[in-house]
Write a structure and sequence with these properties.
The protein has helices at 2-19, 207-229; strands at 25-28, 36-41, 46-54, 59-73, 76-81, 90-94, 99-107, 121-132, 137-146, 151-157, 164-177, 184-188, 192-200. By secondary structure, the chain is of the alpha+beta class.
C-alpha cells in the first residue's frame, strides 16, 4: 500500500508542477474580438466604473487612482480620462468570472502631458501586472508601444492552470530622442483603453484539480486494499 500511495503522490506532484510551469503571455495582435465584448457601461464618471459584456452580460469593473469617464463608439464601450490629462493607471476586475484571454487597444498619450521640444521622437512603454485566482501574480515590464501612433492592440493569454482575476495597466513612460541631444524620459498618462474583449475560463477542471482527484482516489483505493487484506476474526 505504501508503494502505491508514494507512486500516486509522485504522479500528482508531477501534474501540479506542470500546472504551474506555463506562464501567461502578452503579445501585440490584430484581428477579431474574443467571445465576450464590452458593450455598455454605468454612464457615470468616477474612479470606479462598471462595464457589461455582450452576449453574456458579465460585469467588469474598471478602477483608477484618477477620475475616469465611460464612453462608447461604434457599439463598443471604452474608458478614457475624465479630463484631458487622461489616467495614470487602470485596474480591470471581472466580478463573477475569470479571464482565460483578454484583448485590448491602448490610445496614448493623453492630450495634456509633459512638453517635448520640437524635433524629438518619443517611444513609449507600459507595464501590465496580472493577478491569478488562488493567489500569485505575473508582471510584464516595459512593453513596447513604439511611437504611440493610433491604436495599439494586445492579447493576454493565461497559462495552463491559470485564471486571471485582475489586470493592472500602469507606468506609461516616454523616451524622447533627437540626434545627439540629451535623451528625455517622462511619465505620461493613458488617453483611453478601447475595444476590450475576453474569453472566460471553461468549466473543465484545471490540472491542479485533477491532481487532487488522483490523490483522493489513490488514498481511497489504498484504504480499501488494506481492508481487504485484514484477516477475518472467527
Amino acid at each position: 500500500m505504501r508503494k502505491m500511495l508514494v507512486a500516486t503522490t509522485a504522479a500528482a506532484a508531477l501534474i501540479l508542477f506542470a500546472a504551474h510551469a506555463s506562464a501567461a503571455t502578452l503579445v501585440a495582435t490584430t484581428g477579431t474580438p474574443l467571445s465576450e465584448v464590452l458593450k455598455t457601461n454605468s454612464g457615470i464618471d468616477g474612479t470606479s466604473i462598471t462595464y457589461f459584456s455582450d452576449p453574456s452580460n458579465y460585469a467588469i469593473q474598471y478602477s483608477s487612482t484618477d477620475l475616469l469617464h465611460p464612453s462608447s463608439s461604434g457599439g463598443f464601450a471604452f474608458v478614457e480620462g475624465a479630463s484631458s490629462s487622461g489616467f495614470s493607471d487602470l485596474t480591470i476586475t471581472p466580478e463573477t468570472v475569470t479571464f482565460s484571454a483578454f484583448k485590448f487597444n491602448l490610445q496614448l498619450p493623453a492630450a495634456t502631458g509633459p512638453s517635448i521640444p520640437n524635433g524629438y521622437h518619443t517611444a513609449y512603454t507600459f507595464d501590465a501586472q496580472l493577478f491569478f485566482a488562488g493567489g500569485g501574480s505575473q508582471t510584464f515590464d516595459n512593453i513596447d508601444l513604439g511611437n504611440g501612433a493610433g491604436t495599439n492592440r494586445f492579447l493576454i493569454t493565461a497559462g495552463s492552470g491559470q485564471q486571471i482575476d485582475k489586470i493592472l495597466l500602469s507606468d506609461l513612460v516616454g523616451i524622447s530622442t533627437r540626434n545627439n541631444d540629451p535623451t528625455l524620459t517622462n511619465d505620461f498618462n493613458f488617453d483611453s483603453v478601447r475595444q476590450v474583449s475576453f474569453n472566460t475560463v471553461s468549466g473543465v477542471p484545471e490540472p491542479s484539480t485533477w491532481a487532487m482527484f488522483i490523490l483522493g482516489f489513490g488514498f481511497i483505493g489504498g484504504m480499501l486494499r488494506m481492508r481487504s487484506r485484514r484477516p477475518l476474526i472467527a
